[in-house]
Design a protein that fits this description.
291 residues; alpha+beta; Jelly Rolls; 8-stranded antiparallel sheet; 4-stranded antiparallel sheet; 6 helices; 12 strands; 20% helix; binds 2-oxoglutaric acid
């Protein structure tokens, strides 16, 4: 008797991902596990009271203090807690990624972006491909919502179809990498077509690594926490150095080691050399006027 693997996505959802560059799957992870993820995250935020500035685990806001912690990001969460590792390496998310990218998958990185109520920072318009180019475009990121994502708590916004367009420069006029698209390029984008991914906790959204996306500040009273894991087809070979410093970087998490590196024709813009440590998207984006 042959058994068929469970499928999570319909043919329409898969076609929609390739057409639009993004996909949402509501309520993939059950409420109990999401509540446990929030509890684990609360423990990390408590721990952050003991640091004054960003370190190997925490990216903290300039206003962060022991009495009022403001964590913007937990770096490489899959390395720091078994439940985060389960999401990254064992959860149904991996099955869904194989349905989009094929049976052999590499892990790229994990991060947990926290937007605290009324203090959560925006993430400026950018494309992930500008940070970690690969030999082909089968690279994506999956965000798991630990809280409901709403229009006023900084849900991620995406520009459908933009993954089929150019990779915009993420350097400013002084050739500094600022981790965001320049204002004049943004002005030419039709952002009236943007989709804000408002979804309940436990849902995931997936975006292609060339897709233009961003998120607004959190103006609500509650938190918006988004656990992101990025993956690549096993035959998509990174063109730049490991920016994560994680032992899991590039690990084969499904399938078999590739016989070839598959290449998409054309040039890929390179990021700066992050091999001695990637700082922070928040610092980079706040760093310089993008004109
Ligand atoms: O946290 C967010 O809303 C945006 C996340 C994102 O685009 C990133 O971290 O690259």
């Amino acid at each position: 008797m042959t058994t068929t693997a469970q499928r999570y996505l319909t043919d329409e959802q898969i076609a929609g991902y390739h057409r639009d560059g993004y996909l949402a799957v509501p309520r993939l992870i059950d409420a109990e596990r999401v509540a446990e993820l929030r509890r684990v995250t609360d423990v990390f935020v408590e721990r952050s009271r003991g640091i004054a500035r960003s370190d190997a685990v925490f990216d903290v806001d300039p206003r962060h203090s022991a009495t009022a912690p403001i964590v913007r990001r937990i770096k490489n969460p899959a390395d720091h807690a078994p439940l985060y590792a389960w999401v990254a390496l064992e959860s149904p998310i991996l099955d869904i990624v194989t349905e989009l990218l094929g049976p052999s998958i590499r892990f790229h990185h994990s991060k947990l972006n926290l937007k605290g109520g009324r203090v959560g920072a925006p993430v400026e318009v950018h494309q992930d491909a500008a940070f970690y180019p690969h030999s082909n475009d089968d690279v994506l990121a999956v965000g798991l919502l630990l809280d409901d994502a709403t229009a006023d708590n900084g849900a991620m916004a995406v520009l459908p179809g933009s993954h089929r367009g150019p990779i915009y420069t993420h350097f400013d006029a002084q050739e500094r990498f600022v981790g965001g698209v320049r204002d004049d390029d943004i002005a030419r984008l039709d952002r009236s077509r943007a989709v804000v991914l408002t979804l309940p906790a436990g849902s995931i959204h997936i975006h292609h690594y060339r897709l233009v996306h961003w998120s607004a500040p959190n103006t609500s009273a509650g938190d918006r926490r988004l656990l992101i894991n990025a993956y690549a087809a096993a035959d998509a070979v990174p063109l730049a150095a490991d920016p994560t410093g994680s032992p899991r970087y590039g690990q084969l998490v499904r399938g078999t080691y590739p016989a070839v590196a598959r290449r998409t024709a054309g040039d890929m813009p390179m990021p700066p050399d992050f091999s001695r440590g990637y700082t922070s998207i928040y610092e980079l984006q706040g760093d310089a006027a993008k004109t």
